[in-house]
Amino acid sequence: MTAPRIYTGAEARALREDAPQSVDLEVATGHVYGSNPSIEYFVRTPGADFAVASEILGARTGMPCEGTARLFAAAPDLAASVEHHAARADGLATDLHRVTMERDGARLSLDAAQAARIKQSLELADARAEVVRLRAALRAASAGRFSDALAAMEEGREAEESGA
């Protein structure tokens, strides 16, 4: 058995538009009498005296098949269903793309915010180190050791420049 043909929404629409009319079909049965009595399945428009398709047989058995007749009669509705569900799938694909883009944008914003917090933390650590250095210089200056204070400030600047 070959794989079933998958129709796109556009192909299903084209099939429906190519039909000579808006087709409403039903399955009917006929009886053949005589030496070899049997049942025949055919498809017709409701109330019509003629068949759109007659002597519908099963593909595997070659015998009259009601299931095949029902499938044939359902074809216009199945084509409409394919068209409908293809449009829904397209809409959902668009929604999925939009939501994915929003999620990715939110992740980028989060990454940028985390980078900014890390930068602020590093700047805060540098500022605290500067405060400690200045306090030490101030203590040295208030103790009357101006040369020690100047040396402490110079040492702090050198450490700052070597760390940068």
Quick gist of this model?
This protein is mainly alpha-helical. The protein is built from 3 helices and 2 strands. The protein is about 65% helix and about 10% strand.
Any descriptors?
64% helix, 164 residues, rod-shaped, two-stranded antiparallel ribbon, mainly alpha, 3 helices
Overview of the molecule:
With 164 residues, the protein is mainly alpha-helical. It contains 3 helices and 2 strands, in the order αββαα. It has helices at residues 9-18, 66-142, 146-163, and strands at 26-32, 38-44. Strands 1-2 form a two-stranded antiparallel ribbon. A hairpin with a 5-residue loop joins β1 and β2 (38-44). α1 (9-18) packs antiparallel against α2 and α2 (66-142) runs antiparallel to α3 (146-163).
